[in-house]
Amino acid sequence: MLRTLGLTPRQVLQVFLTQGTVIGWLGTAIGVVLGTWLAYNVGAVTEWLQHTFRFQIMDADVYYITRIPSDPHVFDIVLIAVAAFALTLLATVYPALRAARTQPAEALRYE
Q: What digits encode the pLDDT tens for the residues 49-65?
């Protein structure tokens, strides 16, 4: 379909890689923000869940600890973010290469 717009295989590859990169950046950014917020506020979130759904997450009768420990470090957060973004880029390459090699008629045959 993209070739019917007059795009070369290289341009198709660039379109898919660009879209994958943007989606990867957005997903990584949202994940880092939400994950970091949760890591720093795990106590408040746990209390809210226990109060709202009326159950004990870390019951003292069952577990040796009564709270969920959380000790986030900036280096760990950055390392995880870089790894997540690298994996999204890696996962983008194969579909982009396949799309660049696919003939439009072949891609539309099963539509």
A: 999 999 888 888 888 88
